[in-house]
Specification:
Helices cover 71% and strands 0% of the residues. By secondary structure, it is an all-alpha fold. The protein has two domains: 2-82, MazG-like (Helix Hairpins), CATH 1.10.287; 83-116, no CATH class.
Length: 116
Amino acid sequence: MDDLVKAVLAFRDEREWKQFHTPKDLAISITLEAAELLEHFQWKSPGEVEAFLATEENRKRLGEEMADVLILLISLADAAGLDLLEAARAKLRQNALKYPVERARGTAKKYDEPAP
């Protein structure tokens, strides 16, 4: 991950784009790119999604949108002075407490909903 972070920041710095990478603008960009990701699934039935994902070209396009989101997340973490990996690890620890295996296994219910 360190190599990816370095590559993202080097790409940005070579183009002198850091001046545009404010937390606000990066957060907006993440939302816009996430919407582009969603477009690949909009109005598709589960079977249509499965068929969409069955082609290499569609998976490539989906991967490009996912990469855009990841690159922007890395950029936002840098702009905000956050360690993205540590934030993810901390969130996983929080989620483990909210969703203990014995209560959450096999259910999509939120942690504050009654157990099945």
